[in-house]
Amino acid sequence: MSTVTPQLIKELREITSAGMMDCKKALEATNGVIDDAIMWLRENGLAKAAKKSDRVAAEGITFAKENDKQAIIFEVNSETDFVAQNDKFLTAINAVGEALLKSSAKNTEEALEVKVNSRTIKEEMIELTSTIGEKIEFRRFDVVAKDKNTTAIYNHANKRISVLLSFEGPISQDDAYNLAMHVAAMSPKYMSSNEVPEDFKKQELKVIEETTDFGNKPENVKQSMIQGKLNKRLAEVSLLEQDYVVDDKFKVGKFIESKKSKLLKMIRFEVGEGIEKVVTDFAAEVAAQLKG
């Protein structure tokens, strides 16, 4: 049986980035053979990742990036916001971004099969889950081909909001970037009110009817008030109908028209949106452990 030396452990750590104790266990289990230990860690990492698969990952990072051919945007989730500051995690995100930007992936499923660091992105997420100790999940991806169009990306400083816009027409890069910042700040759900689904409208109508005091106003006035409130709400969630924060004498749509341009696509990713987060009652959890 080969002796597991500190030098062997150090070598395995440098190759795999796994924890010291995991490297020691892997080498002991494989008689100190580095190649076998790498496979042991990979298989063990898959087992660890499987154990974490039912955990909720609602923190993490969003990232938008572009080159002269296309612009991409994606989200990777973790269980806690501390991981989003982890150097290993951030290095992996940058590598994933570079790989995706050079790829021909068109959707999330294709993105997961893109190679990064000799592994697919799907495999990279499993590896990160194993080495970091939290569930890491590549959640979503989108891409816009530039062709002759203008694109603008914006990544907020907190790494939790990213925006990708695509325009047709002679809009300047500065104006396009400012509009991307507007989208980040004002969080429109839809590009225009024409895109708002009926379910959303019905829900808003219900809220308006339940929270508005109509007094003894006649039915036609009541309906007019409801429609006015609904139109106002739809404008709040529709980018082109929002007041433009950079120049509030314009609606966003009118500002873009003034530049003889047209917005083709709006993508806004915010970390964890739509994911139901688990709120942990630590006092109750500890009490339950003590009773057990």
TrEMBL record:
It comes from the Bacteria. The keyword Protein biosynthesis applies. Its main location: cytoplasm. It holds the Pfam family EF_TS. Residues 80-83 are annotated as: Involved in Mg(2+) ion dislocation from EF-Tu. The keyword Cytoplasm applies. Keywords: Cytoplasm, Elongation factor, Protein biosynthesis. One of its GO terms (molecular function) is translation elongation factor activity. Residues 71-273 form the Translation elongation factor EFTs/EF1B dimerisation domain. It is found in: Cytoplasm. Gene3D superfamilies: 1.10.286.20, DNA helicase RuvA subunit, C-terminal domain, Elongation factor Ts, dimerisation domain. GO terms for cellular component: cytoplasm. Belongs to the EF-Ts family. Associates with the EF-Tu.GDP complex and induces the exchange of GDP to GTP. It remains bound to the aminoacyl-tRNA.EF-Tu.GTP complex up to the GTP hydrolysis stage on the ribosome. This is Elongation factor Ts. It comes from Spiroplasma sabaudiense Ar-1343. The gene is tsf.
